[in-house]
Amino acid sequence: MQIVIVGGGEIGLGLSRTLAPRHDVVVVDHTAAIADRFAALDVQVLIGNGTNPDILQQAGVGTCDFLIAATGMDEVNVLAALIAGRIGSPKTICLTSRDDLLQPFGGRDLLREHVGIDRVVWPEGELAENIGRIVAVPGALDAETFAHGRVALLEYRLEAGSPLLASPLASVALPAGVLIVAKRRDDRVVIPDGTTRLQAGDKVFVMGLAAAVAEARRLFHPPAARPHQRVTIIGGGDVGLLLAQRLDANPNVDVCVIERDQARGEVIAARLRRAMVLCGDGTDVELLQSEDVGGSDVAVSVVDCDERNLLTSLLARELGVRRVIARVTRPANLRLFERMGVDVALSARGAAIAAIAHHIEGGPWSLLAVLEEGQAQVIEVPVPAGYPSTPLRTIAGLQGAIVGAVLRDDAVVVPGGDEAIRGGDRLLIVTTGADAEALRRQFSPPA
Question: Whose CA is closest to 15, among 38, 48, 39, 46?
């Protein structure tokens, strides 16, 4: 596909890294120096104003498949999408920094009807959604579901003494219907095979039937001693409020929000039913101790400052919080947060990129999830009709990838190597992306 991205900032750069290996990407930005950031990528950079019709025509908007407006200004993004629709007929995706552009007015979606924008993405909203999904699974570092909830994918960090460390994966006793589909060690994601040995500190992704994955959680995280989770949210901005509202609706979660601005705290309290809202600073040790924040199952720091989020996370860890999640604004800090002991470090940028990539790469080959900031992906691959019944272990195009589930008619199969793949199956494949082209050749319909 041909894709035009207006805006060469962090989200534009991240989208280019994700999309350029499989698509023709043109980036439009008014700053000449921005081209240096894209030098290592197979993209075309066009210097100019993204709301200038002549520049957009030069970028190929008249014939492209998608225009993504990803500057830091809502007005520029909306105008670029509007002009693109007048020049050609691409599908348009627009980033916004506020939620009111997501809300229908008078029951009508004005951006879709009158501007022609197909999808509006609010990074903060996507981040809150991702954090809420992770919090819902005790001990998990990431959580995804596919096939209408029938297939689950969870990420955990292995602790010393885990039963998964003793033997190669081929000898590990996992519940039926579960596979370990990826591991990350030393900032590198790899697809394991039967000879792979896991180490303490590895992050592992487990995938399979939802019920079986839930049973496998005991191998990674001890059962909760109490039915309720206590969650402390530090920071009551957009992300903090959205997350608190989501968790407040869950009767098995007790929520406390710490917000240092009293007026904002009153707004938050008015929008929540059960949660406690405290006025204070999340870096105030006396406050954290007096409110027994250390007894929380999860602490989530989502203020709009990396330094404060890191300090608050370290204080929560020191006080005994079992799981710490932090928002990271600068992408370069993601690994730093993890090395400093933060269990889950997430960015609104990464959440937005994953949402946009998922929206674009639909159709026959669907991108279902982006893992570890794009180092691995979950894709859905249809097996063409007439494909000969072939044992999974003999399919050459799957080196460097793993089939986590097979959707066959109304059934879900978690395959072993002898499982026969046949025409009409849909494969949920975890891959690092390096062998995507080989997968396409293997499962493309005959000419």
Answer: 38
